[in-house]
C-alpha cells in the first residue's frame, strides 16, 4: 500500500503508463511519506462503449 | 460523481449498456438530486470463468 | 452478480438508498434479464474532502 | 455478499481460479460464518504493463 | 500484487480478519505461486443499509 | 474520467489529500492529455486492522 487504481476510457501507450506510474509513485513518496516500494498502481483501460457520462456512452459523443 | 461501477459475468450489447446508463443516470438525478452531467458509469464485463458463486466458477454451472 | 458499486461524496438518506437500489435492480432485470435476487448493490459514501474533481477537493468549492 | 475481488498481473489457469474460489469461499464460511451461496468472487487478470510497483511497470522487471 | 479486496455487510472481529488474511495469503501462495510478501488484502465493512440484494437494503430483512 | 481511487492504510491530512489530488490531476493532463476538469480522484483511508500484507494485519507490525 498505497494501492492506486486508474480507470480510463480508451487506451494509453506503454510509455504513458510508465511515466504516470513513476510520477504518482513520486508524489506519494514526497507528500504522503510512502516508500516507493510500497506503492502499487494499476491501470484499467475500458472500451468507450463501457463508459457513460451524463447518461450517454462515450462512443456516442 | 457519483461514480457507478457495474460488474457482470458475460457481456451486454451496446444497446443494453446505453439503456442501463440512461436509466441509472435518471434514477440518480430524480432520487439523489445529482445533475446528469455529474454521473459516470462504467461497465466491467468478465468472462464466466472469472466469476465464482458458492465456490464454483460460473462456467461450471 | 451483477455487482453494482455506487460511490458518492456526501451522504444519502436510508430512503434514498432504498429507492435507488430498487430502481437499479429493476433496470437490470428489465434490460439485462438478471433475476432480481442476483443483483447486489453497495453504496460508498465518502467525505467531501476525500473526493477531488479538477484537482480540487470538493470541500473547497 | 461477501464480495471478493482478486486482482493479479498476469493470468491464472481455469484450474487455479477454481481452486482459489473454492478455498476462499470455504475460509469465509468457517471463519466469518457466511453461507457458501452468499460468496461472490471475481478475478481481474491485468497485463504486466498495467501494473506498477515502486514506480516501474512489471514488464520492466 | 495480488491485491484482494473483501467487502462485507456488517463487521468482522480483528481475530476473524487476521485468520482470513492468513488463509487467503496461504491459498494464493500454494495455488498461484505468489510469495506471501506480495499479497495485499483489504477489508471493507459496510453498514447493512449500504448493501442491497434483490432490490432491498439488508437492514430490511 | 479518468477515475482514480487511492487506497491507503491510516489517514492523510486534508492538506496532503489536496496536494496529492492537484499533482495527480496535473500528471494526467500533461501525460495523458486529459483536461483537468475530467479527472475524479477518491481517497479511501482504511484502519490498519483492515489491511494485510504477507498474511498479517498492519496493526500487528
UniProtKB/TrEMBL annotation, chains A, B, C, D, E, F:
Keywords: Isomerase
SUPFAM superfamilies: Tautomerase/MIF
Record domain 4-oxalocrotonate tautomerase-like: where: 2-58
Isomerase among keywords: yes
UniProt-listed Pfam families: Tautomerase
Similarity comment: family membership: Belongs to the 4-oxalocrotonate tautomerase family.
Matching PANTHER family: 2-HYDROXYMUCONATE TAUTOMERASE (PTHR35530:SF1), TAUTOMERASE-RELATED (PTHR35530)
Protein name, per record: 4-oxalocrotonate tautomerase
Amino acid at each position: 500500500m498505497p494501492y492506486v487504481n486508474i480507470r480510463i476510457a480508451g487506451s494509453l501507450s506503454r510509455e504513458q503508463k510508465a511515466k504516470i506510474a513513476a510520477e504518482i509513485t513520486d508524489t506519494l513518496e514526497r507528500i504522503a511519506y510512502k516508500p516507493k516500494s510500497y506503492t502499487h498502481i494499476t491501470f484499467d483501460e475500458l472500451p468507450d462503449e463501457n463508459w457513460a457520462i451524463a447518461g450517454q456512452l462515450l462512443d456516442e459523443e
